[in-house]
Automatic annotation (TrEMBL):
InterPro entries per UniProt: Aminoglycoside_PTrfase, Kinase-like_dom_sf, Mito_inheritance_9
Family: Belongs to the AIM9 family.
GO terms under cellular component: mitochondrion
Aminoglycoside phosphotransferase domain ranges (all copies): 43-320
Primary location recorded for the protein, binned into one broad class: mitochondrion
Protein known as: Altered inheritance of mitochondria protein 9, mitochondrial
Species: Penicillium desertorum
This protein's UniProt keywords: Coiled coil, Mitochondrion, Transit peptide
Pfam families, alphabetized: APH
Length: 504
């Protein structure tokens, strides 16, 4: 029997996670960072994520430090580490609404004690970050056992943190660095210590995107960001003969199904550029550059072990870009749920017959009620503290918001969906609503994108095929018991997972 871990391109996957480093040097660097003649007594390798090796180092006096070693797949060498450090160290400067994550805006993040972003200068032979261990306990370990009021308290704090991030506007887009870590030719200076340089966002490097030579910032406007994003996707399509299958939403290429083509993808990108300036939000605040934590789930949130309603630290700032609000701001993963959505600020309600329901159904109803309550609490807090953030959440569901949010994955998948959205937005009523009316009640700007009746029919046909193939993949994933968005990585319990699909 072939071991299950060989089923998903194991050699290549292992290679992008392989690091050779000096363990003795790691201990020495940790002792230096701890200071005061600290002596290491134990090093523990923590469970490995996708992008880093993580070690817990315990000193003789009981003090514990975390050392992070980025894997080759973590992002661009030097820049990924340098930007992560700067994001956690940045100071509030002058009149600009920019900040030091750990102190000035009261966003609890681990304190960086020492780092090296250049392998040639590293005693370990690899890049590293030494930081204080996040105090408390990982929220994911205790969430299910928390009282509802404690969960509500945590959600309110997450709302405060995201509102702070949303209000802190940057004058440029890219990623944050200490000035010593980025050259003048590739950065915009913020103050004596910090600058904005090339982006480290993973969307610019995943699925072979790192192999193409394209501008990666910094940029002076949201429109420039979107044009660079399209250039990135276009360059990938022109350079590579295949598309990344593991990120595709459907099972394509079957009889009567949707067939991916380079020309269809390039056509969507060209059409988008024709109307891109009109799709951007008119409110300049919504186009401002912000730092946004992309993974605010319960495993990146630490709470006080004695008072679990109090957040003590937010971890994992790796690959955090400075992007336009409309492109990055979204609801935190912590409050996302499956089930009926609330209508605006409507209060969630329990079923009238809750007392007579069987235990399983009653428990499900209570869980749904709590999930909706957490969602509503977050929205209310955001509306009070940063209404422009709530505006962005609503904007993501509009036609322009959907187009702006999906065009950046064209190289991977989704071009029939984006094409259908473009066809919808150039309809007379939609276009007029987008650009406004002139004194005669007509669109104030003539739409530069036109489709013939035959074009519109083709768009509908191809989108229907694509949608059907996406539904097919969803059913397959449900049958084998894995989540939608699964990248194909195979766990050790592969045989147990796939048994429902085995012939009887």
């Amino acid at each position: 029997m072939v071991p299950s871990f060989l089923l998903w391109d194991e050699p290549a996957q292992m290679l992008v996670r392989y690091l050779q480093f000096n363990m003795d040097a790691l201990i020495h660097v940790a002792e230096e960072a701890a200071g005061d003649g600290s002596v290491c007594v134990e090093v523990t390798k923590l469970p490995e994520g996708n992008s880093n090796k993580v070690f817990l180092v315990t000193m003789q006096d009981g003090r514990q430090l975390i050392i992070i070693l980025p894997n080759p797949n973590a992002g661009p060498v030097h820049y990924t580490t340098a930007s992560e450090v700067a994001t956690m160290q940045f100071k509030e400067i002058g009149i600009l609404s920019i900040f030091k994550v750990r102190e000035k805006l009261h966003i609890p993040a681990p304190k960086v004690l020492k780092y090296c972003s250049r392998t040639s200068e590293s005693k370990l032979g690899v890049e590293y970050i030494v930081m204080e261990k996040a105090p408390g306990v990982e929220l994911g370990r205790i969430w299910e056992g928390l009282k509802s009021r404690d969960k509500l308290s945590i959600v309110k704090q997450i709302a405060a943190i995201t509102c702070t991030l949303a209000r802190s506007h940057f004058p440029y887009h890219g990623a944050l660095y200490r000035r010593q870590d980025v050259s003048q030719s590739e950065s915009f200076v913020l103050d004596d210590e910090f600058a904005i340089g090339p982006t480290t966002g993973r969307a610019w490097f995943d699925n072979r995107r790192a192999e193409v030579e394209v501008p990666r910032g910094p940029w002076i406007s949201a429109e420039n960001v979107m044009k660079a994003l399209v250039q990135r996707e276009t360059t990938c399509l022109e350079k590579f003969s295949t598309f990344p299958r593991d990120t595709q939403q459907g099972i394509f290429g079957g009889p009567g199904g949707y067939h991916l083509t380079k020309e269809a993808k390039l056509s969507v990108l060209r059409d988008f550029l024709k109307i891109c300036p009109h799709l951007l939000p008119r409110n300049e605040k919504l186009c401002a550059g912000v730092i946004w934590h992309n993974d605010l789930h319960m495993h990146n949130i630490f709470v006080d072990s004695e008072n679990p309603s109090q957040i003590t630290s937010i971890i994992d700032w790796q690959g955090t870009p400075i992007n336009p609000m409309f492109l990055v701001c979204h609801h935190p993963s912590l409050i996302e749920y499956e089930g009926p959505e609330l209508d605006g600020f409507a209060q969630p309600v329990l079923p009238d017959n809750i007392r007579t329901l069987d235990p399983e159904t009653k428990e499900a109803a209570k869980d749904s009620f709590l999930s909706q309550s957490l969602w509503l609490t977050y929205e209310i807090e955001v509306q009070r503290a940063a209404p422009e953030l709530l505006h962005i959440f609503r904007h993501r569901d509009t036609l322009p918001g959907q187009i702006l949010g999906t065009i950046g994955s064209t190289y991977d998948d989704g071009e029939p969906y984006v094409q259908s959205l473009l066809a919808d937005i150039i309809e007379d009523h939609a276009w007029t609503e987008l650009v406004g009316e002139d004194e005669n009640g007509n669109a104030s700007v003539l739409c530069p994108l036109r489709y013939s009746e035959q074009d519109m029919e083709n768009v509908k046909t191809e989108y229907a095929k694509w949608e059907k193939d996406v539904e097919r993949k969803t059913r397959v994933l449900e049958e084998i018991g894995v989540y939608v968005g699964w990248n194909g990585a195979v766990s050790k319990d592969y045989d147990e997972v796939t048994w429902p699909c085995s012939p009887s």
